[in-house]
Every structure is written in structure tokens, then in C-alpha cells.
């Protein structure tokens, strides 16, 4: 009897989880900046990115604005964001309040493709001599298409 109840609970939890994934509506681009085009084949006016966007490609309209915030820590800081190409023009990103964070803001000045990159250590460096250290790096790379 107990095994049947556990299976039924697990199946119910799975169904609720799956139902929750598709039931939420997405705000329109006018109310919340998004990395998702407002219509098929179109590009967004505004894009806000975090480290969760690593490895993705986003589309930004020419004249649009892109803002990037990478949350780091004092012991695992993000390197300043680097760009390839000249299609984005840097604008004020505001003030970085937390040590280890990296922020950047750009205006789409021309059509083209730009890569945004940064990196940080995978683990904190040892605080005492002889402590365990790692050489791993967490990479951040996003491709921005401007159209």
C-alpha cells in the first residue's frame, strides 16, 4: 500500500511541475525588457542579460539598448565585460555596488554581430598558504545580433 501511495504522489508532483512550466504568461516587450524578440523574425528594443544567458544568442534592434549584470563575489570576481566588433556603443551602466560584479550597457549603433565575454574563477582562492586551489574558469559568452 505504501509503495502505491508514493508512486501516486510522485506522479501528481510531476504533473503539477509540468503544468506550471507552460502556464505562465510572458509580459510584452513594452512592459518588461526581454531577450526574446517581440515577434517572429523581429528583434527586441531592450535586452537585459545575466549569467544565465551564457551561451545564448539574442537579437537587438538597431538603436536598442542592452544591459548586462554578472553577479560575482569578492573571492570569485567577474572580469570586466569585453566586446568584439563595433556594432555596440558603450553607455553608462550605472554604479557597481558589490565587489566582484561586472555590469555593462550598450546601445546598438549599427547592424552586425558582437560577442560579449567575461570570466571568473570557478572557486575561491585559498586564504591561507598551502590551502587547496583550483585553476578552473567560468566563461560567459553571449552573441548579440543587431538588425
Summarize the structure.
The protein has 147 residues and is an alpha/beta fold.
Structural class: alpha/beta
Bin the strand percentage: 35-45%
Shape: elongated
Q: What is the typical, i.e. mean, pLDDT?
A: 77
Low-confidence stretches: 1-39
- Major β-sheet annotation: 7 strands, mixed
Total count of strands: 7
- Helix-strand string: HEEEEEEE
Fraction in helix: 10-25%
Number of helices: 1
Can you tag this structure with a few keywords?
35% strand, single chain, alpha/beta, 1 helix, 147 residues
Provide an overview of this structure:
The protein is 14% helix and 35% strand. The protein is of the alpha/beta class and 147 residues long. Strands 1, 2, 3, 4, 5, 6 and 7 form a 7-stranded mixed beta sheet that branches.
Give me the secondary-structure topology.
Blueprint: H1 2-22, E1 44-49, E2 57-70, E3 82-83, E4 88-90, E5 102-108, E6 112-121, E7 137-146
